[in-house]
Specification:
The structure is a single chain. By secondary structure, this protein is mostly beta strands. Helices cover 9% and strands 31% of the residues. It contains 1 helix and 10 strands, in the order βββαβββββββ.
Length: 181
Amino acid sequence: MKNGWKMDDGFYTENNVQAFQYLEDTIPNIKWLRGIGNRKDYRFPLNYYILGMRKKMLMTADYLFNHYLKPYSEKQDLIYYHCWNGTEQTSCNWHNDFCEGANIMFLLYFTDMNKDAGGEIMFRNISQNNRITAFHLPQKYDVVVGSQDKQFEHRVEHFRDPDMHRITMNFGFKVSNSPWT
């Protein structure tokens, strides 16, 4: 175990209000545009740039790196960052986002999920016979740190109501010494 992170589980979670400090006032002002096709349960932030979200997300990335990743990398290498409401259907299949270049991801949740509504995030360790290591029901201010190493995969449980709101931000970092490798 490193910093409370279980090495064979591929994830770490905590409720951390501080991680949301730069975006908390912006999220209620977002106008959401519904996707189509396999993204019909997924909404894009329409007025993203008008609200200064890019700058606020980069400030959040700085916080995440300094608070969680500094022991694992001298240099901050932010690969991607996104915001959405809902989930893509493809996210409901087991997958790994390592191909995007990051080896650690963060999911920040801005909404509470109801246990009967779906939307839980699951992790598994494929090197341990696909052992399920997490079945996490996101709550507001949850920060989930996940490994993107090839031995771990994650997925989202299908929503039972396609109009349900699940506002999430995703940050992907490449660190030189991942705690999971």
